[in-house]
Design a protein that fits this description.
The chain has helices at 2-35, 42-91. It has 92 residues and is an all-alpha fold. The two termini are 27 Å apart.
Length: 92
């Protein structure tokens, strides 16, 4: 029961983190695209830099997110394999 609750909690965190990643990369891209048509100014340069920073944050968080997902998948495979071995050993 506790493992099921922990699994649901981890999946909820993963979904929330994915939406944050999509927010940063999407907003950063939108800011940069909207600034391409504006006239040259210091404000435009600052906004483009902010957009690039947001995209960088999104990419950084995405690599950390991918590592967490792979780690979670490895743990899940080990648990599944262990449960499968216990089930087949009890059968014989």
């Amino acid at each position: 029961m506790v493992k099921i609750i922990d699994k649901e909690r981890v999946l909820g965190k993963i979904k929330k983190e994915k939406s944050i990643i999509e927010f940063f990369t999407g907003v950063g891209t939108g800011i940069i695209v909207s600034c391409l048509l504006s006239p040259d100014s210091i404000r435009r340069t600052v906004v483009i830099l902010i957009g690039l920073v947001m995209i960088g944050i999104g990419w950084y968080k995405e690599t950390r997110y991918d590592n967490k997902v792979f780690k979670y998948m490895e743990e899940f495979e080990e648990d599944s394999f262990h449960n499968l071995c216990v089930f087949t050993c009890r059968k014989f």
